[in-house]
UniProtKB/TrEMBL annotation:
UniProt family annotation: Belongs to the cytochrome b5 family. MAPR subfamily.
Ranges of residues in domain Cytochrome b5 heme-binding: 89-187
Biased amino acid composition, Acidic residues: 192-201
Species whose genome carries this gene: Galbula dea
SMART domains registered for this protein in UniProt: Cyt-b5
Protein name: PGRC2 protein
Amino acid sequence: MADDGDGRLRTEGSSDGGPGKGGEGEQPAGAAAAAAVVGGEMLLNVGLLALALLAAYRLYLRWGTRSGPGGAARQSQAATLPRMKRRDFSLEQLREFDGTRNPRILLAVNGKVFDVTKGSKFYGPEGPYGIFAGRDASRGLATFCLDKDALKDEYDDLSDLNAVQMESVREWEMQFKEKYDYVGRLLKPGEEPSEYTDEEDTKDHTKQE
């Protein structure tokens, strides 16, 4: 206890209304600080949620509306196309099947060519993966790259990909096999195409079904 000079007694280490240790002024300040932190976190969470919703809306506007009348027409056209007979493709031949020069859409994954025409809302010219139409999509799928950096004009042997990326390529290949028709191989430079019999072609299509 000490005399503060005007006849009042005060506790050591505290002052009237001040932030002394254990003083009464500390509690309101601490409560205000805690409230500010909680309020700041809530504002941050609300802001992040708003950004996520905005991003989702923009994606819907970009891709959802694109698969409107034009996309529906392409899907309808795809449904009428006959099943493609087995054949092998060079890179140049594969590029013809990009959904613009030819209504059929093909792409290659890990040396295998798949007919993805029925998935034109994804792989068509206006789809989110349209850049892979008529091309070898292996590198882009392995590296999660959806721009031209993932495409090569020459045959891509994928030899520079690491083990994790190659495993990703194989997983994508399996997914395409389950969902789309396998129509042949992507030929290496100088490689001759195989000759497939109708019996081989029918047997493989039956397996996929």
